[in-house]
Design goal:
227 residues, Arc Repressor Mutant, subunit A, four-stranded antiparallel β-sheet, homodimer, five-stranded parallel β-sheet, 22% strand, Rossmann fold, DNA-binding, alpha/beta, 2 domains
DNA sequence: TGCCTGAGTGACAGTATCGTCACAGTCGTG
DNA sequence: CACGACTGTGACGATACTGTCACTCAGGCA
């Protein structure tokens, strides 16, 4: 159902726990990566840049905080939200975690459902993964794959339509001027007097079906996407 | 230290708790708003549009979920992150909260430090659009989106109407002269003897409905908006 | 009260902008 | 080459927005 190809990295030394977490995440359409120790976790994170990381505090070798530090050091992983999981219910640890910049915290025992929901909550704030994904409302646009999912279903867009939609969706709530759109799609050589933009927008709207209404015209200014 | 004075709304019926939370938030440089029941909370949220909301689940009158729903219904408060606080450690509630879209969850007893850190974590994701928004009374004008909300509902205005209303609302209480308004909308080439301004003002008032009364004419001088 | 001035209203026509369409050109592929 | 997918263009009608005018209405003043 979810075309949401978010990848979640789970770092925990207890294999049973990892299995449980991954099983539940996968059930929700996420792709999972597993690491049974800290160093592997850091390596996988750098290599695959997951959308979010579930990190156990107690680990052999590098512990959770060290892993977290390592992730924050690296430019490639600095912005990935981390959900820290621990057996300890102690407040001191929770504070230390949050202070260090951990994005959320969950204490064992937790229900798998809650974990999935917390991961989802973290992903909600992620603007666009590596700059390659734009997501808002019913739209999910993967710039690297140039594919577009609407309400979970793949819709084939031409490159012009894709750039148009990506521009509007990534600037949700803002009115994007005609000039900006033309500049973004055709560059400086774009012809503002032509009906090109309108035509492509019309073709795009046809493909969006009911969601076309989310793109509104602001007369004399441009267009605005709002979810 | 913080130039960015984020406002946090705290909704809880226990005054001691509110005091404690507010005290700690203020210590960190935040501006706080208090509400001791749900309805007050919703009203304050709509009125002041805080950067984040701390919401107790157990409230007299409207309960936490109802408050949350109300906040998500209103265009003015839809995007404000909510941290829900509850005495119950029960997983079912936590899940229900997260499922409904609550952005974070904290179980009593919690340390004030942790609460502040969690609020900070929520604010991390909030985009800052100060200066782009004019708001007062029932009006909410977003200059970047060029859209206008009245009592939480979107009202479509033409660009002239928008500029007119923005001018008046941003100079609340002041009598803005006809000349100033004409200058602001048409520039120096504006024609003061024309009935244009009156016509646009009339059209604007039609769209404002009952709130049209907030814009008063000052005979021989100009117009004044007062809430 | 009657006059004067400025403000509110409704109708109208001109203009700008938008949505849609048909058509033609380009490009890559089988 | 023929075909289809994609694109850019200009024509056209529909619509939204604007300014002007004539007229009415209301407040202030003698």
């Amino acid at each position: 159902m979810e075309a949401n190809a978010h990848t979640i990295l789970v770092i925990d030394d207890e294999e049973d726990v990892v299995d449980l977490i991954c099983f539940n995440l996968e059930k929700d359409g996420y792709v999972t990566l597993r690491a049974l120790d800290g160093q592997t976790g850091v390596n996988l994170a750098c290599q695959h840049r997951p959308s979010a990381i579930v990190l156990d505090l107690m680990l052999p070798g590098l512990d959770g905080f060290q892993v977290f530090e390592a992730l924050r050091q690296d430019a490639r992983t600095r912005h990935i939200p981390v959900l820290m999981v621990t057996a300890k219910a102690e407040t001191a640890d929770r504070i230390a975690g949050l202070k260090a910049g951990v994005d959320d915290y969950l204490t064992k025992p937790f229900s798998p459902k809650e974990l999935v929901l917390r991961v989802k909550a973290l992903l909600k704030w992620v603007p666009d993964q590596t700059g390659m994904v734009v997501e808002s409302g019913p739209f999910y646009l993967d710039k690297s794959a140039l594919c577009c999912y609407i309400d979970g279903e793949e819709v084939s867009l031409t490159s012009t339509e894709f750039r148009l939609l990506a521009m509007l969706v990534s600037r949700e709530g803002e009115t994007v001027t005609r000039e900006d759109l033309i500049e973004h799609i055709w560059g400086a050589s774009g012809n503002p007097s032509s009906r090109s933009l309108d035509t492509h927008l019309m073709r795009l709207r046809e493909k969006l079906g009911a969601d076309a209404a989310l793109i509104k015209n602001v007369r004399g200014k441009g267009y605005r996407y709002h979810h």
